[in-house]
Amino acid sequence: MKKTWTAYPYILWMIIFTIVPLGLLLYFSFTVTSSTGTIFSLDNFRRFNQPIYLKVLFRSLKLAGVSTILCFALGYPAAMFLAGRDLKHRNTMVLLMVLPMWVNFLLRTYAWLTLLERKGLINTILGAIGLPSLSLLYNDFAVFLGMVYNFLPFMVLPIYSILSKIDRNLIEAAEDLGANPFLVFLKITFPLSIPGIISGITMVFMPAVTTFVISRLLGGGQYTLIGNLIEQQFLTVGDWNFGSAISTVMMAIILIGMGFASRYETEQEGSGLW
């Protein structure tokens, strides 16, 4: 007899902390408050379809996309290095990769302020060796740096997990048949690692597109991203209806992206090697 009662706490948790909040979010998204009371309307979504808000959306998607590409460019070689069969102290190096994630996200971002500011550690070192100081804070560079630093482990770990499970017999067979290292990577390693790549892209892009702490601290408030806009609507303006509508749009975009990624991953798993 199946002990279905063991799932009740999980179901209760999901209802209270997932289904109910999502229901409230959708309710506020499709309602407006007028002199006659609360009515259902699409005005919140029509309001979001203004150039000023679309510009914020496109800027957020652009920054998140570039940050995801940078994380992939840095993370894939790092994952391959960690998954190398001859690597000593692998567990220690993986721990060092995960260790910064144990520190609060806000504290990690604040730490970069002491490094990048005009009189920070980096410019102090540059001045000590006779080089001019650099403007490292409150610009695109600082925002990208903050995103890559905070989200890079989310790219490395899924790819590393897949690479470490690849059957070495496939690689050895390809080498025995005369394939050089580049061809082995192109025909075997990379195709087999696509599920990890898709997971990494998803795990990086989703928080990057909705972040507001990084853009506020390292961007100096000069960069209004979609996360900042949502925060302002809820905490500053007090317009929960418009803030909920923006959140619903972002949730739809993320779900569509995850759907395409999941479909592509399924097709790759069924197609085998190139």
Key traits:
274 residues, MetI-like fold, two-stranded antiparallel ribbon, single chain
Textual characterization of the structure:
With 274 residues, the chain is mostly helical. It has a single domain, classed as MetI-like (MetI-like fold), CATH 1.10.3720. The protein has 13 helices and two strands. A two-stranded antiparallel sheet has the order 1-2. Helix 8 packs antiparallel against helix 9 and helix 10 runs antiparallel to helix 13. The longest helix is centred in the first third of the chain and has 32 residues. The radius of gyration is 23 Å and the shape is globular. 26% of the residues are buried. The mean pLDDT is 87.
Our estimate of the beta-strand percent is: under 5%
N-end to C-end Cα span? 45 Å
Uncertain stretches: none
Order of strands across the main sheet: 1-2
Structural class: mainly alpha
What is the CATH C-level name?
Answer: Mainly Alpha
Q: State Rg.
A: 23 Å
Gross geometry: globular
For the residues shown, what is the average pLDDT? Answer: 87
- Note the total helix count: 13
Mind sketching the topology for me?
Layout lengths: L7 H22 L1 E4 L2 E4 L2 H6 L2 H32 L7 H9 L6 H12 L4 H8 L11 H24 L4 H9 L4 H12 L1 H17 L2 H5 L8 H12 L2 H32 L3
Antiparallel strand pairs: 1-2
Quick synopsis:
This protein is 73% helix and 3% strand. It has 13 helices and two strands. Helix 7 runs antiparallel to helix 10 (194-210) and helix 12 (226-237) packs antiparallel against helix 13 (240-271).
